[in-house]
Design brief:
Blueprint lengths: L2 E5 L5 E5 L4 E4 L6 E16 L8 E17 L1 E11 L2 H4 L13 E11 L2 E9 L4 H4 L12 H6 L3 E13 L2 E10 L15 E9 L22 E14 L16 E14 L2 E13 L16 E10 L5 E12 L11 E13 L3 E11 L11 E11 L1
Antiparallel strand pairs: 1-2, 2-3, 3-4, 4-5, 4-19, 5-6, 6-7, 7-8, 8-9, 9-10, 10-11, 11-12, 12-13, 13-14, 14-15, 15-16, 16-17, 17-18, 18-19
C-alpha cells in the first residue's frame, strides 16, 4: 500500500493511504479536511419469468461520490459533506427541490459536547435500520435488500443527539432525531409535520473491531464473538410523501402520520457474519380495505431480511440472503404484491471494501406463492468498486 507523507510550506501536513482518503491539517491545527472519492460500476441482467428471449441488460455508474470531512476551529467541532454525482444519486427533480439536481447527500456539523455525547445539526441519515446506515461502500452484496428499499427512513434535515456508555462488557448506544420529515434538499416550506426518531443498540459482548457493527463483512475476523442488537421507532407526523422521506408527494388533503419500527441484529465471529432485520410501517387513520377503490397514499406493510456469509482466508466471501416483503392490502394492486427474494452473492476483497469485485444472482417470487411450478424472475448483477 502506497503511503505518502509530505510537508508543504508553513508545515501544512498532507497524509494519504489507499482507501483512507487524503487528509490535510492546517499548520496552526485550526482545521482539517479529509477528502474521499469512490465509484461503483454496475452491470445488470434481468430475466423476467426466466424467459431468456426477454432478457434486459444495463451498464451504469450506480454510485459516484465525493466526501469531505474533518474538524474546524476545535477538534470537537467536526463536519461532513458528501455529494452524489451519478444519475441514481441525484433522484428526480421536483418543485420541492427547486427543479434542480438533488446531489447533496450529507451536509452536517457534529459537536462532541462531553464524553461520548454528540449533537449533529444538518442533513444526514436518520438513525434507522442498520442496513441503511451502513455505507453503500461496505455492503456484503451488490446492493441493499428489498426491505431497505421499501421501508427505510433514509436521510433528512434536522438535529440529532447521540450517546454511548458502557456497563461492564455491555455497550449501549442511543440516538434521537427531530427532523423535517420530507427527505433531503427541500427548498420550500415543510408541507407536513415533523419526524421523531429514536434508536437504541445493545452490544453485550463489547465493541466490534474497527466499528465492524456497521460493516457487512467480517474483514477484521473477530477473534471473540460480537453481537449488536438495535431497535428503532420513527413517527412521521402528517407525512407528505408516499414512504415518509421518499417517494412521490401525496395530496395534502390526505395526509396521515406514518409509524415505522425496525429491529435488527449483527453477529460476527472468525469470518462468519449473520445479520437480520425486521421492518413494519403503518399509516395512522388511513386503513386499507380489500375491494375499495381507494387503497392508500402510503406504502405500508412488513418486511424481513436475513443474511449469512463467511470470509475465507483468501478474502473471498460467499453469502446468502433471504428477503420477504408483505405490503398492507397485498395483491390489490401490482405494486403491492407479496415478494420473496433469494440472493446468492460472491465477493472478492482486494483492499477491503475500498477495492472489491462483487456479483450476485437473485430469484424473485413476485406473488410469494412458492411451489415447484413457480416461475421466478432472475436478476444478475456484477459490480466493481474503487474508493480512495
Amino acid at each position: 500500500m502506497l503511503s505518502l507523507v509530505s510537508q508543504l510550506s508553513a508545515q501544512q501536513t498532507i497524509e494519504s493511504t489507499f482507501g483512507n482518503g487524503v487528509t490535510v491539517v492546517a499548520a496552526d491545527e485550526s482545521f482539517s479536511m479529509k477528502f474521499n472519492a469512490r465509484v461503483q460500476s454496475l452491470f445488470i441482467t434481468e430475466v423476467p419469468e426466466m424467459d431468456f428471449s426477454e432478457v434486459e441488460t444495463n451498464w451504469l455508474i450506480r454510485r459516484s461520490r465525493l466526501k469531505f470531512s474533518g474538524f474546524a476551529y476545535n477538534p470537537k467541532l467536526q463536519y461532513k459533506i458528501e455529494l452524489g454525482l451519478s444519475n441514481r444519486d441525484h433522484g428526480g427533480e421536483t418543485p420541492e427541490t427547486n427543479n434542480t439536481s438533488n446531489l447533496i447527500l450529507d451536509a452536517f456539523i457534529k459537536w462532541k459536547v462531553v464524553g461520548n455525547f454528540e449533537v449533529w445539526i444538518g442533513q444526514t441519515k436518520l438513525p434507522g435500520n442498520r442496513e441503511r446506515v451502513i455505507s453503500s461502500q461496505k455492503l456484503q452484496f451488490v446492493d441493499r435488500s428489498l426491505v431497505n428499499s421499501r421501508f427505510n427512513i433514509d436521510r433528512d434535515m434536522g438535529i440529532q443527539f447521540r450517546n454511548k456508555h458502557t456497563l461492564g462488557s455491555l455497550v449501549v448506544k442511543e440516538a434521537m432525531a427531530i427532523s423535517q420529515g420530507e427527505g433531503r434538499n427541500r427548498t420550500v416550506g415543510n408541507q407536513g409535520g415533523l419526524e421523531y426518531t429514536g434508536r437504541i443498540e445493545f452490544l453485550p459482548m463489547g465493541e466490534f473491531t474497527g466499528k465492524g457493527d456497521y460493516v457487512s463483512s467480517d474483514l477484521k475476523r473477530e477473534s471473540t464473538p460480537k453481537l449488536s442488537v438495535g431497535l428503532t421507532f420513527d413517527h412521521n407526523a402528517n407525512a407528505a410523501r408516499e414512504r415518509g422521506n421518499l417517494g412521490g408527494y401525496v395530496a395534502d388533503t390526505a395526509y396521515n402520520s406514518l409509524q415505522t419500527v425496525f429491529a435488527d441484529f449483527m453477529f460476527k465471529y472468525n469470518g462468519w457474519v449473520v445479520a437480520g432485520e425486521y421492518a413494519n410501517k403503518k399509516a395512522l387513520g388511513d386503513r386499507l380495505v380489500a375491494g375499495d377503490e381507494f387503497i392508500s397514499n402510503y406504502y405500508t406493510g412488513t418486511g424481513v431480511n436475513l443474511q449469512l456469509g463467511y470470509l475465507f482466508k483468501n478474502n473471498v466471501e460467499p453469502a446468502f440472503r433471504y428477503t420477504e416483503i408483505t405490503p398492507e392490502a397485498a395483491g390489490l394492486t401490482s405494486d403491492r404484491n407479496l415478494q420473496k427474494m433469494y440472493t446468492f452473492g460472491l465477493s472478492k476483497y482486494v483492499v477491503g471494501h475500498s477495492l472489491k469485485v462483487q456479483t450476485d444472482v437473485s430469484f424473485i417470487d413476485n406473488d410469494a406463492a412458492f411451489s415447484f411450478e413457480q416461475v421466478f424472475d432472475m436478476l444478475f448483477r456484477f459490480q466493481v468498486e474503487m474508493a480512495f
